[in-house]
Amino acid sequence: MEIGQIIQGGMGVAISDWRLARAVSEAGQLGVISGTAIGYVMAARLANGDPGGYTRHALARFPDQEAVRRVLGDLLGAQDRPRRRPRPPMWSPTPSRRLVELTVLATFAEVTLAKEGHRNPVGMNLLEKIQMPTMATLYGAMLAGVDVVIMGAGIPRQVPGILDRLTLHRPVTYRLDITGAADDGLVIRFDPASIFPGIARRTGALARPLFFPIVSSTVLAKSLLRHSSGNIDGFVVEAPVAGGHNAPPRGPLRLDGRGEPVYGPKDRVDPERMVALGLPFWLAGGEDTPERLERAKAVGAAGVQVGTAFAYCEESGMDPELKQRVLEAAATGRVTVRTDASASPTGYPFKVVQIAGTLTDPATYRARPRRCDVGMLRHVVRLDDGSIVLRCPAEPVDHYCAKGGRPEDTAEAVCLCNALLATAGFPYQRPDGFVEPPIVTSGDGLARIGRFLRPGRSSYSAADVLAYLVQHSPGRVDHHRLVPKNMGTSQRPEQSLRADLP
Ligand SMILES: Cc1cc2nc3c(=O)[nH]c(=O)nc-3n(C[C@H](O)[C@H](O)[C@H](O)COP(=O)(O)O)c2cc1C
User: Fold this and answer.
1) Mean pLDDT (the chain, rounded)
2) Residue 289 in contact with ligand 1 by CB distance below 6 A
3) How much is the pTM?
């Protein structure tokens, strides 16, 4: 399998949707869909009448049409017409069969659409912090032939072994992180054969995607190589200027005068140390110029992963009106990006664009009545009496505190689930008419976004971004050839792949 020098970073929720990933992969680089909250995205698309019929077109290829009928029946009702508010239930350690089916189908559809019309690899991005849907999301993507899985925001040690087992449709488990307890006894299970009887017979063994964890230090990269449950095939090395969630600074958290985390020299990754690990790696975070791409390759990287520049291109899944508003404001220097240490319920710093009408606007934030009804970022907590609860600092404060949470943790927490669905053009309208407001994340590179707008143009395409990035090596597509290994029995990276330098 050949992976290009440019990875279009996975951007949730549905910012890097199948259209963007397909455009990038068609052009010969690696397009990546976001698997985050994908079941909610598919439900919302169907509720909007499945514009273009794409979801149904993809689901017609799913190898268990009974499951497709069940899920569509659930979401659309007997008349096959969208119900007003078809919201899937929230994930828990014991999810309903229908929720698992929905998640598998949604990822299958997204990857199938991203792969259509070309033969190049397509990747999927996931956040390790969101653990409960992970196995179902991976399986749906593998059924559609996803080529690479890229995972950040956490330490995804369990994932490589799960990928291995899912190639043979074997049952898998995921040990959930538990807050407030030393035990790691809570395990969530996924058994493909019991959810989709006979599927292994119909599809045969599945291909094992390559696995690239996202790291922000060589220490983490080494630890993953040593302690993961199967093969790792490469890394994305992300710097703190990148859009989305960032790794916290090493050492104790210090905030500057603007309340932003202070990063220092220890947070910089030495590329030589990455080279020494023997696996290909892509640099991410502000690596969005032809000069940075050349420099990345000169220091031994396979290429770069770019997010922000793609988030505002025509093919991205961001709500078109919001995209245009941020793009215009950024192009004329009227917008700033802030690294917010307390907005994300994950506890990770999260980059937010300061713009009116979104949740970074204090009036918009205050006007939103708290409510938790998607729940992807809920922490699993074991209370002193041994019981398990799920809680999110962005839920109503009294609910959070009743489950043992500290009120001070709720103060600036943002409901990213609802906000990011709104940013992707799927704002939930509550029964009382309140419409969920969006929030926009971007890297520091947002300030440079205007360079993509040619004179007289108010938009640009994914192809424009790619053409700009490779301008120092026009007509040349550098690729890393990787050989995926099924059933990773070896932990030794040099046996798991062959990286041919161009
Ligand atoms: C809108 C947006 C959403 C993002 N969402 C995710 C995500 O869900 N998971 C993830 O691992 N990275 C996410 N990222 C990070 C990108 O995948 C990529 O690594 C990063 O944007 C690269 O830095 P750059 O923005 O300076 O180009 C996101 C970035 C942006 C701009």
Assistant:
1) 91
2) no
3) 0.94
